[in-house]
Amino acid sequence: MALSPAQRSQLRKRAAKEAAASAPTHSMAGATTYELQLSQLAQDRARLRQIQSEQGKAELKRELLPSYAPYVEGVLSAGQGAQDEVLTTLMVWRMDAGDYAGALDIATYVLQHGLLMPDRFARTTGCLVAEEVANAALKAQKAGGTFDLAVLERTQELTAEQDMPDEARAKLLLATARATLDGEAPELPRLLIGIDLLKRAIDLHGSCGGKKDLERAERLLKNIAAPAAD
Question: Sorted alphabetically, which InterPro entries does this protein's record hold (predicted)?
Fold first, then answer.
């Protein structure tokens, strides 16, 4: 059942109050609003387990996520960094549902306060954020589509100091480079940025798939430089 505007406002205020009162070294466990959201999350996970299709799961998550938005807003506005399984799970759900900007809003808080992912997630938080965004971008680009460059750049900034396998960071660099170079004739500043990103990706992981992209970009750079030299 959808919440009324008044109910959403009350949920947001209660979440903010509880999050503000929870110390960074502790968990949100025991807080009433948190426990209610955790219980709802368990019920929604049970619904998701009944769906085999990944696309179907993503569609259901898109339907479910708005009911959690007031809680997320409350915690992000006043939270002190207490461990919060609801928040970290919803960050992943937002990525699964294609809401990358919303996921990064949560990731900013999660990474700032060093929140841990639930045990069922094998990767560290920084690696998960970088790799999930990169994989989505690379998939879209491979299919001939585009991906929001601002999301990729924000992900780069958020995860720049996070430890992760070189292959994971190379994926993000490659996806960002392709988004930067998107179009028939990128302008010189973007071309130089894209080439630098590709070189960094290849240096980290030689099999990342960016060598042909680098060859094309360097040919474009030569074509631009040749008339200038003449």
Answer: Phage_P2_GpM
Instruction: Tell me how far CA of residue 38 lies from CA of 44, 80, 201, in angstroms.
Output: 10, 19, 39
CA separation (Å) from 216 to 182, 183, 198?
A: 12, 12, 11
Residue 153: both structure tokens together:
């750049």
Secondary structure class of 210 (helix, strand, coil):
coil
Measured CA to CA, the distance from residue 48 to residue 65 in angstroms comes to: 13
Q: Measured between alpha carbons, how far is 4 from 67 in angstroms, rounded to an integer?
A: 10
Compute the distance between CA of residue 15 and CA of residue 68 in angstroms, rounded to an integer: 11
> Which are the contacts of 28, defined by CB distance < 8 A and separation ≥ 6?
18, 19, 22, 34, 82, 83, 84, 85, 86
**Mean pLDDT, rounded, for 29-44:** 92
Q: Beta partners for 83?
A: 27
- 3-class state of residue 184 by DSSP: coil
Residue 112 CA, chain-centre distance (Å), reads 14
pLDDT in tens, 10-28: 999 999 999 999 888 788 8
